[in-house]
Design goal:
Layout: H1 15-28, E1 37-39, E2 52-55, E3 60-67, E4 74-76, E5 90-92, E6 110-112, E7 146-150, H2 151-159, E8 170-172, H3 173-176, E9 177-185, E10 203-211, E11 216-222, H4 236-240, E12 247-250, E13 255-258, E14 278-279, E15 282-289, H5 340-348, E16 355-361, E17 366-368, E18 371-372, E19 383-384, E20 388-390, E21 396-401, H6 404-414, E22 441-445
Length: 459
């Protein structure tokens, strides 16, 4: 305890933590002998085409999201909302190109529609997240800003509709979970004991997230294995949970969680729009992240016709100079028995989408990292995983499409459900970790606003 602050680790679990828990549970399940074997390697680099030692590569997850006792799912606050209103408090301002210091390729700054104020509950202020005091001293619901929206409220926000009643639909962090403080003793990494080496005489303070009574973590998980068959079918996750539920170990603290297996007809995630308003003939589409997304820096590769891309806050599927959307128009999914390279060639042959990014509302990044144990089968060494800076859930990206048809194409490739009815996750728009639940988003409508009253005008 050499520093002045305690460790504030009571953050909401990231998607890869839950995915890792299911993956580890599958390896402990004894299913490996009957499951399909995958090639060792990734990103098109496979040392030996016949070396098939990887297991459970079909696992895909989404979440976690808070779920109350009534089964209602809640989702992180979009960054253009403030206070208890579902009407955006921030919106792009239409300006003459070149009159701002926005980073390329943005052309419209996002401004607040709320006049500046020094009041304590200023809707324009950023909330202090995950800093709740311990449970026994905290009066739930009286501190902090609204940070979670129910599925119904989220869909009304996307449509630009205010609900008749928002009771129990807009919640604060403190109503769902709290930060529980714990004191620990430092452990020497070499001897794995206390009182020796750098850890001698060291103790630490840390905060851990604890859900309030009647709250659960909602997760979507599935692993369809073509070689696996059980009384529960080919889904490894359903078989793992015995069709009902069991206990699994989650997170670095090795917490034991009991599970309940549900099979809804439609996923309880907000569904995005497919029709959007027009401005001077352009269709206005905004895309809001339900889960974090990782867009890495990409180096140029002339041999493979790959252009450089800065990544970071800017999606890799947006041209870094012109803002043009680089995604292809939607096409039929990969057919059973169709080779992957043939399917990719079919996707590349699709026409482009005439739309461009004009504005973005992106909060500070979050760190995504992890630790891997040595893999006995593949021989891979364990150790620290690559550290990524992810764009948090709630980030908003504003697009202009050439017309209503192009906007519909854009929504089809950005909405997590595509053109489907919401029973399957089709689009995961994170370049990395998409199978772990990163990059889920929904499309909504937006409009340009004039300069905010009371703010100085541009010269």
């Amino acid at each position: 305890m050499e520093q002045s602050l305690a460790g504030h680790g009571a953050a909401w679990p990231l998607p890869h933590v839950i995915n890792g828990a299911f993956h580890a549970a599958l390896h402990r399940s004894g299913f490996a002998a009957k499951a399909h074997s995958h090639r060792t390697g990734s990103r098109g680099v496979y040392p030996d085409d016949n070396d098939r030692k990887q297991k459970f590569g079909s696992l895909k997850t989404a979440g976690p999201f808070p779920v109350d006792k009534a089964g209602t799912w809640f989702f992180p606050r979009p960054q253009d909302l403030r206070g208890e209103s579902l009407v955006p408090a921030l919106a792009p301002v239409l300006r003459t190109p070149g009159d701002s210091s926005l980073p390329v390729p943005l052309t419209a700054p996002v401004a607040s529609l709320v006049p500046p104020s020094k009041e304590g509950n200023n809707p324009g202020q950023q909330p202090a997240r995950f800093a709740s005091p311990p449970c026994e001293t905290h009066n739930a619901g009286e501190q902090g800003e609204i940070t979670w929206y129910s599925q119904a409220a989220y869909e009304q926000y996307l449509r630009g509709v205010s609900p008749a009643s928002a009771e129990n639909q807009l919640l604060r962090d403190s109503q769902i979970f709290t930060a529980e403080q714990s004191i620990g003793i430092g452990i020497d990494p070499e001897s794995q004991t206390t009182g020796f080496g750098p850890a001698q005489g060291k103790i630490y303070s840390a905060h851990y997230l604890r859900l309030r009574p009647d709250w659960k973590l909602g997760v979507g998980a599935g692993a369809i294995d073509k070689d696996f068959e059980s009384e529960y079918g080919p889904d490894l996750v359903i078989a793992l949970l015995n069709g009902e539920g069991k206990r699994i170990i989650v997170g670095g603290q090795q917490r034991v969680c009991s599970t309940e297996c549900l099979t809804p007809g439609k996923l309880p995630l907000p569904r995005g729009l497919r029709e959007f308003p027009l401005h001077n003939g352009k269709a206005l589409v905004k895309w809001v992240l339900l889960s974090p997304a990782v867009w890495p820096e990409i180096a140029a590769d002339t041999a493979r016709s790959i252009n450089p891309h800065p990544g970071g806050w800017l999606p890799n599927w947006v041209d870094p100079e012109k803002g043009a959307v680089l995604l292809k128009s939607p096409c039929a999914p990969r057919a059973e028995g169709e080779r992957r390279d043939a399917w990719r060639a079919r996707v590349r042959g699709q026409s482009g989408i005439n739309a461009r990014l004009v504005a973005a509302l992106v909060p500070k990044p979050i760190t995504v990292t992890g630790w891997a144990l040595p893999h006995e089968i593949t021989g891979q060494e364990g150790g620290a995983q690559s550290t990524h800076l992810a764009v948090p859930a709630g980030a908003v990206f504003y697009f202009e499409a050439d017309d209503a048809q192009e906007a519909a194409k854009l929504a089809s490739v950005l909405n997590w459900h595509g053109d489907g009815n919401g029973g399957t996750i089709i689009n995961r728009r994170s370049t990395l970790l998409g199978e772990k639940g990163f990059g889920l988003g929904v499309c909504g409508a937006w409009r340009y606003w004039p300069d905010v009253p009371g703010r100085p005008k541009s010269s």
